[in-house]
Write a structure and sequence with these properties.
A hairpin with a 2-residue loop joins strand 13 and strand 14. The strands form 6 sheets. Strands 17, 18, 19, 20, 21, 22, 23 and 24 form an 8-stranded mixed sheet that branches. Strands 2-6-7-16-15-9-8 form a 7-stranded mixed sheet. Helices cover 37% and strands 12% of the residues. By secondary structure, the chain is an alpha+beta fold. Helix 19 (601-619) packs across helix 21 (643-656). The protein is built from 33 helices and 24 strands.
């Protein structure tokens, strides 16, 4: 039959993957298969399989006699949760069980993927060892008739169980039994690849999942491997893995609970706490130090009240005490108990190879738990295909050799767990990520809830934070093989960036030079997107500020931001790659970041130089400064007032200045910088704020508003006032500003050498920089290494560029209400709110001041009242002679009544006089005043009255005379 008449495509489909692999293994060596890659894969078989040869191979393959015919034993009784199948030798028709299903053909074929319930069975026929026969076929036939299943030419088992998931422990059969397992991971959701992307061997996968094996065993050999019949007669390699009879986790649980109880007892005992401190091991000289922990004494007592520490007996006086054991005694540890331990215990060296890591004590005495190592005799034999792409294996457990140790917890980091967490990291993003961020990410929660994570045994090791940190660190180490500091950046620049075209680079340059002060060297890294560099030629100002939060280590980030007032009025081509930051109505554009490890004048001069060189290299033209070149648009460098930054800028500008063109003949960098620089007024106010605590309100307002002084005469007056101020901080602050000739011109408009029009059109602060810092920190994270910070900024810039390009294509701007009119309205609204808050605060301050005045007056009145109260109490004490007087009763005896005054007119000799009221009781010390008619009042000496009138006037109106004719008794009237 010719090859043309063979339908190769149909034949390949019917034959299946196993026969194709076997055919490939027969005709091609392993080296050729590996070197060919995907060309010799099963999917590409139509292009490399010879039709005629493959047909003959299939015919021979299907007619080769097999050791057994499998039978799937189905039972309604579930004996295990493992997804496995069992095979049993069956000749003829199926008569062994009403639940049995017989496969009639002579080869071991794959059956339904849904495994039936498991029943452990043995062959129906005799399991005795067959008698030896001379003929090879007769021996094979005898083993087959006895119910044995052939694995290799010499390996036979009584039962063969198929698994689709890797068990954590492999049950060991009893003496006289023999069980094999065929593991098929072809349909596994996991890829099982190493860190380089290569497929792992089945032996490595099985050993990794087994919790009973920790490093012992063999990996097998690829030379002269046995042919395994259940795997389709493909060449395999044999590996041995050292493994109880069955998984008895209760034993381990009891040991674990005992350890936890011991830890609790240790924490509740003074001796236990002290013993946890006493046992130390010296790590000096890579752990080779032979010294023992000893108690040593400080020269003086520490701040925690301890005068001793745990040191090393082998430390020499000339050696640093921190090089050997140096353990300060914690505050809550009894120093006397610790001394007793060292006195009674002797050596407290903790050799983990001889002693357990736990502290044991009994009846107040410490005990050293010795470790005795025993080799576990249990082992398993693993037959795995030489071709790692075949995800099948046969595992044979040796009967009669149980484990001599309890089972372990599922703390091994399995390949499944590693692959699952790697997917979680990739979903979140490797750059700038931490374990906490990955664990809290919504994608991680969804991934752990997926079908791949349903096996809790496979992912139980991810409970430990350190395991996840090790996975994350390994991925970062792979991405940065030379580290994440300047050495790693240099590796990235030389091996990645320089191989790209100039227009595709992100790291534009790296430069290093020795410091002038002799302290180490200056390293500068310039990064920017090439598209952003073009914008510098079309702006009137740039803003420059240093941020210290994003980079971890010696390097800091120096960011350049530009502003474009016409961005929302015109759809310019520059908006393709702008980073929009809505602030004051303008669009801030972070056009580049420069990283440097020093902040000196020399370092900043290098920063300015390397940045403008990079722009010229990327855009093929240099930046023109309006003040120096008399062309171009760039007029102002907005900075934060850092002295080294301004001095470095002046040094750079001198290299760009041509006096014949600029008409600036100075060679002083502190003078030339005044022609094109401004200082952020907000940074100036931040520097003045500390003076608020030492100045009066009036003085502080005068200091704050000095930047608006208009004449030199007023500036001189202000200088004299500051230098003569009573507060030293004010004097020192102004002396610091006078030390730099560029400070006042760069801050005060009326003293600047910048043209008035350029000054008025320029920004007044570096708020665009501050906004850019915050946006970048949110997107990339903070306190990250240098290399990781550069990569994360690169990804962030590219993402913003893509988003804005889509916005431009769709004609939808980020903020269409961003014109100058909108800016004034928004700015006025914010200003009004700010002034309203200030006015409200001032009004509240005045009201509180008035209340304080009233409160002070009330307190003064209270003070006077208290003094009066004390005075009255003193008088009371004097009047009562210090005795307690009961004012509610009349006391003992009866007081003498007051003298009564009669109100009857008959008994009153002067009836015309008004009597005092009855309630009035004059005392002896109070004079009595009677109300007399005018007639009885004696006239004044100056009053002249005729006697006749007095005689004619009637003194009394009573009918009866008030006075008798004589005032003496009648018996004395001699003349009557």
């Amino acid at each position: 039959m010719s090859s043309s008449s063979i339908n190769l495509s149909s034949l390949l489909k019917v034959a299946g993957d196993d026969i194709i692999r076997a055919y490939r293994t027969k005709y091609f060596t392993t080296g050729i298969i590996e070197a060919s890659g995907d060309f010799l894969s099963n999917k590409n078989a139509i292009n490399w399989v010879n039709a005629e040869n493959f047909q003959h191979f299939v015919v021979e393959w299907l007619q080769v006699p097999t050791p057994c015919t499998p039978q799937i034993i189905e039972s309604s009784t579930s004996a295990s949760a493992l997804p496995l199948r069992q095979y049993k030798r069956q000749r003829g028709s199926s008569t062994s069980s009403e639940h049995s299903v017989v496969i009639a053909n002579k080869r071991l074929r794959r059956v339904s993927r849904s495994p039936p319930p498991i029943t452990w069975v043995t062959p129906n026929k005799s399991t005795g060892t067959p008698a030896k026969k001379h003929a090879r076929y007769s021996k094979h036939q005898a083993m087959t008739d006895a119910g044995w299943i052939q694995i290799t030419r010499q390996q036979w088992v009584k039962q063969l169980v198929e698994l689709t998931e890797i068990p954590t422990t492999w049950p060991i059969p009893m003496e006289g039994e023999s069980i094999g397992y065929i593991l098929d991971l072809t349909n596994s959701a996991f890829k099982f690849i190493d860190s380089n992307g290569n497929p792992l061997s089945m032996a490595a996968i099985i050993k990794n999942k087994c919790v009973d094996g920790w490093g012992d065993g063999s990996g097998g050999t690829k030379d002269a491997g046995p042919v395994v019949f259940p795997l389709g007669k493909i060449k395999t390699q044999r590996a041995i893995h050292y493994e109880r009879y069955s998984d008895d986790f209760k034993t381990f649980e009891e040991i674990h609970n005992a350890q936890m109880a011991n830890n609790a007892a240790e924490a509740d005992s003074v001796i236990g706490v002290a013993a946890a401190v006493a046992f130390r091991t010296c790590k000096f000289n890579d752990g080779k130090c032979k010294g023992q922990p000893i108690i040593q004494t400080f020269e003086r007592m520490t701040a925690f009240g301890k005068d001793q520490f745990i040191g090393c007996s082998a430390r020499q006086p000339a050696e640093d005490k921190h090089a050997h054991i140096f353990f300060s005694i914690p505050l809550h540890v009894s120093q006397s108990t610790l001394n007793d331990i060292f006195t009674t215990q002797g050596s407290t060296s903790r050799d983990t190879e001889k002693y357990t890591a736990h502290v044991h004590f009994e009846n107040g005495k410490l005990l050293n738990g010795l470790i005795t190592r025993h080799q576990c005799p249990t082992q398993i034999i693993i037959y795995t295909p030489i071709d790692p792409s075949i995800r099948k294996a046969v595992v044979i457990t040796t009967p009669g050799l149980p484990h001599n140790h309890p089972p372990y917890a599922l703390q091994k980091l399995t390949f499944e767990a590693t692959e699952l967490y790697v997917e979680a990291i990739e979903a979140v993003g490797l750059l700038g990520s931490t374990v906490g961020q990955i664990d809290r990410a919504p994608t991680t929660k969804a991934l752990l809830a997926s079908q791949k994570a349903t096996d809790s045994k496979a992912t139980s090791s991810l409970t430990r934070h350190r395991v996840k940190q090790r996975i994350l660190s390994g991925m970062k180490q792979k991405q940065y093989p030379e580290g994440k500091d300047i050495a790693g950046v240099k590796h990235m620049y030389e091996n990645i960036e320089l191989k790209r075209p100039v227009q595709e680079r992100y790291i534009q340059s790296m430069h290093s030079e020795l410091c002038n002060d002799g302290n180490d060297q200056i390293d500068v890294v310039v990064t920017m997107l090439p598209d952003l560099a073009e914008l510098v030629h079309n702006v009137t100002s740039t803003q420059h500020d240093t941020t210290y939060k994003r980079i971890f280590g010696a390097f800091n980030e120096w960011e350049i931001v530009i502003w474009h007032p016409y961005l929302c009025r015109h759809e310019s081509t520059y908006s393709l790659i702008l980073i929009f930051i809505e602030l004051r109505g303008y669009s801030g554009v972070a056009i580049g970041c420069i990283y440097c490890n020093r902040e000196t004048r020399q370092a900043y001069c290098l920063i300015w130089t390397e940045w403008f060189k990079a722009i010229e290299r990327v855009t093929n033209k240099s930046v023109k400064f309006k003040a120096l070149h008399k062309e171009g648009k760039h007029a102002i460098f907005m900075v934060d007032g850092s002295a080294p930054q301004m001095q470095g800028l002046g040094d750079f500008l001198l290299t760009q200045n041509d006096p014949l063109v600029s008409r600036i003949a100075t060679k002083d960098p502190q003078i030339i910088v005044q022609y094109c620089s401004r200082i952020c007024n907000i940074h100036c106010q931040r520097g003045v704020e500390p003076l608020k605590a030492v100045c009066s309100h009036e003085d502080y307002n005068r200091i704050v508003h000095f930047q608006y002084i208009t004449t030199q005469e007023k500036m001189d007056e202000f200088t004299a006032w500051c230098l003569g101020h009573e507060q030293p901080k004010v004097r020192d602050w102004w002396r610091n500003k006078l030390a730099y000739p560029w400070y006042i011109p760069a801050l005060c408009r009326h003293f600047s050498k910048v043209p008035s029009a350029d000054w008025d059109l320029g920004p007044t602060n570096t708020n665009l920089n501050e906004q850019s810092h915050q946006a970048t920190n949110r997107a990339t994270g903070v306190h990250i290494p240098l290399a990781e910070a550069i990569d994360s900024a690169f990804e962030y810039d590219k993402q913003i560029s893509r988003e804005l390009q889509l916005a431009l294509e769709n004609c939808i701007l980020t903020n269409h209400q961003n014109t100058l009119t909108h800016w004034f309205i928004s700015n006025n609204h914010r200003t009004s709110l700010r002034i309203e808050r200030v006015d409200m605060a001032d009004r509240i301050r005045k009201e509180v001041t008035n209340i304080e005045i009233k409160l002070a007056a009330a307190l003064e009145e209270k003070k006077i009242a208290i003094e009066n109260v004390n005075q009255l109490r003193t008088e009371k004490k004097q009047v009562s002679s210090g005795k307690k007087i009961n004012l509610k009763t009349s006391g003992r005896g009866f007081p003498t009544p007051a003298v009564a005054i009669s109100t009857e007119k008959a008994n009153f000799p002067f009836p015309s006089l008004s009597l005092p009221s009855s309630s009035y009781h004059p005392t002896s010390t109070e004079p009595f005043y009677a109300s007399l008619p005018p007639e009885l009042e004696p006239p004044p000496s100056s009053y002249n009255v005729h006697l006749s009138y007095l005689q004619q006037s009637r003194l009394y109106t009573n009918s009866e005379p008030v006075f008798p004719s004589a005032t003496c008794p009648p018996n004395l009237r001699s003349n009557q």
